[in-house]
Amino acid sequence: MTRVAVVTAGLGQPSSSRLLADRLSDATDRALRLQGERAEVTVVELRDFAHEITDHLLTGFAPPRLAEAIEAVTSADAVIAVSPVFSASYSGLFKSFFDVLDDGVLDAKPVLLGATGGTARHSLALEFALRPLFAYLRASVTPTAVFAASEDFGTAGAGTSLSTRADRAGRELADLVLQRPRTAPTDPFDNPTPFEQLLGS
């Protein structure tokens, strides 16, 4: 079983970011099933956690509901992260969520990036804003990132290109997940140094 956490920062209900996130998670699920693997998908709608994220930034403590969302991302085998493009970059809510994650949470974790905007002119935000952010977080990002403009959802047949890109990105994420060695999390208290040894040194 592969655990996939889907993080989407759309503000509306439904939002184009959530629509894109659903397409990407469906494509990933299909790609995993074709390789004999089942996916368990958890969706984190950041809109529902806006106040808790702000509280966490101010206090350093995550309220219980937000802590569950953070744990879903921390324990996931892969992450799909989708943000609307505001002022030529990811949204503040999107960035704030990744700011409250502990250091190292995304180390080498397979991540698929997506973004939405009114026109295709905003698509470069994936490369000059989102990809550098996740490189800094040391994630393993798929070569294909997917941008969806309003017209990709609008008319019959307009989503063909989007579906093609989503399928390619989903296959890339599935490949990264299945190539990554699975290691159980280590507990630093599993093998403590004996007290006598500490006294002896």
From TrEMBL:
Domain NADPH-dependent FMN reductase-like, first and last residues per copy: 3-152
GO MF annotation list: oxidoreductase activity
InterPro entries, alphabetized: CE1759_FMN_reduct, Flavoprotein-like_sf, FMN_Rdtase-like_dom, NAD(P)H-dep_FMN_reductase
Domain of life, per lineage: Bacteria
Keyword Cell cycle: no
Region (Disordered): 180-201
Short name of one Pfam family: FMN_red
Swiss-Prot/TrEMBL keywords: Flavoprotein, FMN, Oxidoreductase
Protein name (database record): NADPH-dependent FMN reductase
Organism: Nocardioides iriomotensis
